[in-house]
Write a structure and sequence with these properties.
By secondary structure, the chain is α+β, with helices and mostly antiparallel strands. The protein has a single domain, classed as Thiol Ester Dehydrase, Chain A (Roll), CATH 3.10.129. The protein has 3 helices and 6 strands. A 6-stranded antiparallel beta sheet has the order 1-2-4-5-6-3.
């Protein structure tokens, strides 16, 4: 596993993350957290967070959680993500928290929840990531 490395060494930033203004936190193995402050650039035509923005947060948080429990000779890829929207979010900060449910030999199962600034549940998710040789 990648213990002792900073979050940027484990999961370096990438262009979409920077474009969206998403920040990653969480140092505990098996957990990934993505934060994003909503702005006009994140809105759909109805003025609420676009579903693709929420999906990107969940997928990124799950990737961070996966990378925290595999060794340095591997990387991960999304196999499947299911996202259920509970309520819209129009302003403030969104936080996606992903946790590893089960780590297998080649597959990792995860869950995630997205909350707004007032801790209201925005979305729930499950996902599966593959462990691949670097």
């Amino acid at each position: 596993m990648r213990s002792g490395n900073s979050i940027n060494e484990i999961f370096p930033s990438f262009p979409l993350q920077e474009f969206l203004g998403m920040e990653l936190t969480a140092d505990e193995p098996g957990t990934g957290v993505a934060h994003l402050t909503l702005g006009e650039q994140h809105a759909n035509p109805n003025g609420v967070a676009h579903g693709a923005v929420v999906f990107a947060m969940v997928d990124t948080a799950m990737g961070k959680a996966t990378m925290s429990v595999i060794d340095e000779s591997h990387y991960c890829a999304t196999v499947e993500v299911s996202l259920r929207f509970i309520r819209p979010a129009a302003q403030g900060e969104l936080t996606a928290v992903a946790t590893v449910v089960k780590r297998g030999k080649s597959i990792i199962h995860l869950e995630a929840r997205v909350h707004d600034t007032d801790q209201r549940l925005i979305a729930t998710s499950t996902g599966t990531f593959a462990i691949l040789d670097a």
